[in-house]
Amino acid sequence: MLRPTLSRLIARLAMMVSGEALQGVFNLALNLALLQIVSTHDYGVFALVMIIGGLGLTYIRSLTALPASIMIAQSRSAAAAQAIEASFGAAALLLALAAAALTSALLLRWLDHGALAGGVFIWLWSVRSHMRTVYFARGRQALASLGDVAYTVSGMAGAALALMLVSGADVLPTVFWALALANGLAMLLMLGLARNKIRLAPPRHLLRRYRKLWRDLRWSLLSVSITNAQGQGMAFLVAGLAGPAGFAPIAAALLLFAPLRILSAGFANMAHPELARLMAQRDTAEIDRVLRLWPLLLGLLGLGYLAAVLTALLFRPAGIALPAADGVLLLAWIASTAPTLYATPRIWLEIRQAYRSIALLSLLAALIGLCLVWAILLLAPAPWALAGAAVSEIVVLAGSWALVLRAWRKA
């Protein structure tokens, strides 16, 4: 039983992470190009917009993609799965619009123009992310991966043209339009190949479904809000006190370890429906094996990636400077690796709907991390605020496994 399950998980993870990796390579190249072309302020704005988009994805995942994934895995007919997809798809569109509005409002303060472009980009990115998760839950991994390829290819072409043909204050808005177009093309390709009509539940059906789920989803909403404060509060605290330019070195340091966060996100999107299926089958032995083996594998990958980065930095050309001090880079690795190590227990807790425990743990980690960040910003240069983020992630790592072990002992 173990080998077939692990081989299936490995195959699905390879497919999902391959799509995430393609996008990660593209985003890495785009970030490096923008570092050379735009001002420090504009690069900080770009990094903050990407963080805002990531925050929007967490809400959409928690309130639409995650429950849709669980319910689709437990559905007994294609019609039921389609009804679930229609309900949560409509909710995802509304949440994506809210994220787009927030992005546009902030960009009005940070840029002279480009607020609409940034908002449209975040809206389409959020909707495509929801579609990817639902497609994986319905066993349409190939379509989701083809969408990733379409986004990467069209995004690279559009961003390259933008960087070659536009200069000055027009660079960021043009890049945002290119990324929005790439997300739109990827969604059209996925929908076209799926050969499904777009189904969106009417408001009354949507409200009825969420009334039934609200008791659990309200803790999920609180949990994701506190988790976002824990994970990304450092970025906005630094931006608020030191401005987008002060956050730019931190963004550059985290950029080196972005593939680890891509791995964590890809694994979470893949493993969630798989663990939900195993829980629906009450296959506790297999769940225990997955919980024990996958964190070990992800930890080894994190160490291997650190070794690769250190080797690359050691042999880098003399003209290329480090984005931050060695200690700051180590803190960035810790902050990026910890989520891969608590991804499995966090998924297990989510499926068991232990949102209250997740929320309290995230609140504790957020308070500890943000207090450290505040103190560091008063006493040291802004990049060292990453220490607060690293400590916060370690608290979540230790607490997540403590919650799982306590539940195992009670079982």
Outline the structure in words:
This protein is mainly α. The chain has 12 helices and no strands. Helix 4 runs parallel beside helix 6. It is globular and about 55 Å long. The model has no long low-confidence stretch (mean pLDDT 79).
Draw up the topology in text.
Layout: H1 2-37, H2 40-74, H3 78-110, H4 115-137, H5 141-165, H6 171-194, H7 203-256, H8 258-280, H9 284-314, H10 326-351, H11 355-379, H12 386-410
Helix pairs in contact: 1-5, 1-8, 2-3, 2-4, 2-7, 2-8, 3-4, 3-7, 4-5, 4-6, 5-6, 7-10, 7-11, 7-12, 8-9, 8-10, 9-10, 10-12, 11-12
Keywords:
mainly alpha; 411 residues; single chain; 12 helices
Strand content: under 5%
What's the helix-strand series?
HHHHHHHHHHHH
| Number of DSSP E strands | 0
Gyration radius, rounded: 21 Å
Major beta-sheet overview:
none
**Helix-strand makeup class:** mainly alpha
Q: Tell me the quaternary state.
A: single chain
Helix content: over 70%
Distance between the termini: 22 Å
Are there runs of 5+ residues with pLDDT below 50, and where? none
What general outline do the C-alpha atoms trace?
globular
Average of per-residue pLDDT values = 79
**Tally the helices: what do you get?**
12
Summarize the structure.
88% of the residues lie in helices and 0% in strands.
